[in-house]
C-alpha cells in the first residue's frame, strides 16, 4: 500500500466526499458483535471463540462476505439473516427463523462511532456528502432515522439501487455517473472516504478515485480485509485513524485558504 505522492493534493481540490458507512461511520464490529450474542452465548465457555471477539467476527465474515458477493441482487438484511443462520449451524446450533430475522433487522441499532456525526457535519460545510454503501434502502432508512439522524446527506446510493455490492467496480461507476448527473461534478472532484480495504480502497484505485483511509483501529480486518493481503492493491491519498482526524485536517486546509 502507498500514499500518492506525485501531484500532492489539497482537500480544497474536492467538492464532494463519498462515504462508506459500515465500518467507517457506523461501528460494524460493535453492532454485529452485540447482535450475534445469542449465538456466542450458547458456545461453551471453553470454546476458543467464546472470548475471542476478533476471531468471532472473522468467523461471521467468512459467511457474510461470500453471500454478499455471490448474491449481487440480494437484499442486505436477508443476506445478514442467512449469514447468521449459517454461523449458528456451523457451531452445531439450531437457531430459530425469528433469531435470524432479528439479526437481519438489527442494522439500525448498530451504533455510530462517537466522532461520526460531528465530523460529518464539519465536512458538510465544505463538501456535498454522499453515501455509497453495501446496504438495502429499508435498512439504511433506519440508520438515517437513528444513529445518523443529525446528518443531512446530499445523496445515498445503496447496493439495492445499484444491483451489486462493493467491491464490484460497477458500484463505483454508478457513483461517478450519478454524482455527475446529480451534482455536475467530475471524478477528480470526489474524495472517497472509507475504512474497508477490500470493499472500497481496492476498487477506488482501479477506477482512479482519490481516497482517504479511515483506519478505525485493529478490528478493521473483520469486514475490511487484512492489511497484508492488499499490499500493492491500495493507493490511498490520505490516511487517518478516525473521522475526527480527517474533519480537522479538512477544516485546517480550508481555514488556511481563507487566511491566505
TrEMBL record:
Keywords: Hydrolase. The keyword Hydrolase applies. The keyword Hydrolase applies. One of its GO terms (molecular function) is hydrolase activity. Transmembrane segments: none annotated. Signal peptide: none annotated. This is Haloacid dehalogenase, type II. It comes from Exophiala bonariae.
